[in-house]
Structure formats: structure tokens, C-alpha cells
Amino acid sequence: MATTLERSPADAFIASGAKKLLIGGQWVPAQSGKTFETINPANGEVIGHAAAGDAADVDAAVAAARKAFENPAWSGMNPHGRSRLLLKIAAAIEANAEELAQIESRDNGSPLSIARMMIAGVGETFVYYAGWATKIYGETNPSPGGILNYTLREPVGVCGQIVPWNGPLSSAAWKIAPALACGNTVILKPAEQTPLSSIRLGELMIEAGVPAGVINIVTGFGETAGAAIAAHSGIDKVGFTGSTEVGKKILIASAGNLKRVTLELGGKSPNIVFPDADLDAAAVSTAQGFWFLSGQICVAASRILVHRSVHDAFAAKLADQAKVINVGDPETATTMMGPLVSREQFDRVTSYFGVAQADGARLVTGGKALDRPGYYVEPTIFADARNDMRIAREEIFGPVTLLIPFDDEEEALAIANDTSFGLAAAVWTKDLGRAHRVARALKAGTVWINTYLYTDLISPFGGYKQSGIGRELGRSSIDAYTEIKSVYAKLD
Ligand code: ADP
Ligand code: MG
Predict the structure, then answer these.
(1) Ligand with smallest separation from the Cα of 50
(2) Rounded-to-integer distance, Cα 89 and Cα 95, Å
């Protein structure tokens, strides 16, 4: 019917002018008056402006969050009321899911189909933690006659939450939902590449009835707004998802007032493919594991260890998978993989193509940028690689993977664990004993057996070694967002 272009739900929001900070329930410009551009990586065009918050704005947000935390209307809220509030947020996200998905897709270049899935997950996260709000129990402990000893779980306080650009709202929801379920207040800082969806979420949260100051949003740069959050003595806890390099800076800055810190950082996740595995299934899953979101996921299948007897056959199968990946405009329904998020990321990822070949890895497929506007690169596979090559040691964060041959289980495990990271890993085999033996020996926070990327909010997520500190999701987030108080009462 329509002969003119219909406006999509996201257009009105994106066109509505420079975005502001959410502080104490009010939308305000940065005190400096500064703004920054946000860009659509599919074409390099500016799609909007957001307030460039810095230390002064973080101060204001901390004051608002502290006041809200101390207000009995929030801290003394009936847990059933808190649960209902989280359900209202979930309902608002679900009612506006298409708009949120479009905003996310335009800001970070994720295919709209994937952005829709991720926004569904964002709503689900609030539903899940709505359930927890009424189930945050302490314990009554064994104690001698004359003494009663029990524990209380209390909110930590004001929480700074710094999130990245690859799944902006997913990362935000993983942090905001449990923080609120436990009665904390929040200052969220989205990544400078992707400020828009968090702002729309803030609007929806206020509409859903979240009290002023319980959620504050400070958009801005890492070195200014982010660093101010990490260092602020009025913030009790910082939750961070991002690079290992920045995670270390946050840990150091947090030491000033000994903030509670959870860090979800990078990875170089091994997939170990044994010769008895279903190689076709392994090829499908590991391929998806390295191109999903253009490889810009912390659990990307970025090191594939393959038994030497099937190495070449597996490389060929993986290359066949790479050929059917539809790379293109994020809003086209058939697109499976969009661009990288930014020019900076594009330069970084493409620089590894030369590095890999100079180190002696064999290019199987890809290895080039796409000849079109926007930050597109080809899904890229290197074979006959070694674990001491830079491409095997550094997180590339692009649709790039490599195959390393091994001769036996012991060698496979040694290579798999020879990394500074420990976020995820997988084992592919039909031998049950080996599957569980290897799963146990892998030093990683998530291990998959004969599958990849499957996750559930009920299960803890996080990393060994330099992939992070602490765990998020499931019950782990309740631990992360509560303090435990032990109470002794003398009964006589
Ligand atoms: P990436 O390298 O994938 O962009 P980063 O770790 O740089 O990931 O960014 C993740 C988040 O950390 C972003 O919100 C970014 O603004 C923020 N950030 C970057 N540098 C700092 C810093 N020095 N202190 C606090 N936050 C920072
Ligand atoms: Mg952007």
C-alpha cells in the first residue's frame, strides 16, 4: 500500500535532537555543554549527538544516586513492589522492542535480526531478576543457646556500571536488573560508540515508574566519564564489561575507596575438535562462533584447535560455512553479518591480516575489507597456525579465526590453556569420558560440549585469569550486588 518510505519506530527518537544525561530523574545537558557524534558503522554517517558527560556530571549523578539510595521509598520498598517494578520495565522493553532493536542496529551495526534477539534477551533479563527480588534470603545459622545468629543480604549502595558497544543493552541489563532487584541505585555509562539505546532505555525506565535517581545515565568517553566513575569515592561498586586493558585501569582506580569490582573482559576462546567429532556440526557452530556480531563478542571462537588428522578437512568445512555468510546492510532481512562498529575497530582488525601472514599462518578464506562504504570485512580463516603467533595470543574482536593442529589430548589441553585469557572454551568429541575430562581441565568460565554460544541467564558467566573477576547472571549477580551482614543477638 505505502508508496512513500515509512518512518521506522527508531526514526522519531533518533531525529529528536541531541540526547541528554539522565540525572536524578531529569534530562540535562553535560555541564560543559559538550556533545559528541555517534555514527552508523554501516555507512559512516553521523546519526545523532549525545551529551559528553565528564567528572562534574558524574559528581551530580553520584549525589542523585546516593540520595535515592537513602530514600526509604526505595530502600524500604516492599520486595513484591520491586519485583513488579522490574516486570514493568520488562513490559516497556517488550512493547518498544522493535524501536530498541533498530536503534541498537544503527548505532553499532549489528544485523537487525540479531539486535531483535538481543533486545528480547534484555526484556527477559528484567523478568528473571524480577523473580529474584522476592527471593533474596539470608540464613539462620547454628548457634549456642542464648545467641541468635542470622545473616541479612543488603544492597551494596551506589553502583557504577560501565558497558561496551557490542551488545550495549544486553550488557546494561545484565547489570541494571540485578542491581535494582537487590535495592541498589545505578549510574550507567554506555560506550561512546553506542550511547543511543541506553538513553531510550532510561526514558522507558522512568515511564515505568523507576524513582528519580535510582537509574542515572551518563553518556561520554571512557577516559573522562568512565574514569570518573571508576575513581569516585561516592560509588560503592563498579561493574565493568569491556577490554582487559581498561579492566585493569578500572581495578586500579577502584582501589581508592576499595569499591567492589566485577569485571567481564576479553577472551581467546579455544574450541578443541577431536577426530571422532561430528565435524559438520562442529564447523557450523564454530563458524557461527567467530562471525556472530562480526566476531565482536567476548566469547568469539577465535582459536580452533584441530586434531592433525582432520585439520585440512575441517579447514575446508569451515571455509564452506564462511562462504554462505551473508555480509551486508544490517537492516536487510537476509543479512547475517554487518560491519565492524567503528573506523578504529576496522583499522585494528584489518591490521591483523598482514600480521597473521607475516607470522606464517595460511590464509584459507577472507583476509580483505569489503569494497563498499562502512566498516565491513570478510569472514577470515587462517590455518596451520601456532599458538605463539600474535593472532593466537591477542584478542582481535573481528570475524577472524585460526586453526592450530594438535596430536593428542594432552597437547590440545596444553595449547588451550596456554593463554592469558579464560572466558570460554569448547570440546567437540563423541567420547563422553573425554568430553567431561577435557571440560574439567579447561581453565575457562564457560565450557561448551558439542555446541557453542548457547547461554542462559540462570547460569553464571565470567572468566578465569585475565578474562575477569567475579561472575554475572544467575545467583552470582545477587552475590555481586549485595553485602552480607551477620547479626548476633544475645537472647537473655
Ligand atoms: P573496546 O576496546 O572494546 O572499545 P573498552 O574497554 O575500551 O572496550 O570500552 C568499554 C567501556 O569502557 C566503554 O564504555 C568505554 O567508554 C569505557 N572506558 C574506556 N576507557 C576507560 C577508562 N580509562 N576508565 C573507565 N572506563 C573506560
Ligand atoms: Mg555509533
Answers:
(1) 2
(2) 10
Q: Is residue 464 part of a domain?
A: no
Taking the chain, what is the end-to-end CA distance rounded to the nearest angstrom?
81
- Among 108, 187, 246, 259, the mutation site with the greatest number of ligand 1 atoms within 8 A of its Cβ is 246
Q: Say how many Å lie between the CA of residue 108 and the centre of ligand 2.
A: 5
Dist CA 124 CA 457 (whole Å): 8
Q: What is the CATH number of the domain that holds 39?
A: 3.40.605.10
Claim to verify: residue 177 and residue 158 sit in the same structural domain: yes
CB atoms within 10 A of CB 474: 17
Tell whether 81 and 99 lie within a shared domain.
Answer: yes
Asked if residue 380 lies in contact with residue 367, where contact means CB atoms within 8 angstroms, the answer is yes
pLDDT digits (tens, 9 = 90+) for 235-247: 999 999 999 999 9
Indicate the number of domains in the chain: 2
| Predicted structure pTM score | 0.97
| SS3 state at 135 | coil
Contact 310, 355 (CB under 8 A): no
Residues ≥6 apart with Cβ < 8 Å to 132: 178, 181, 182, 478
The residue range of the domain holding 378 is 270-456
pLDDT, tens digit, 9 for 90 and up, residues 314-329: 999 999 999 999 999 9
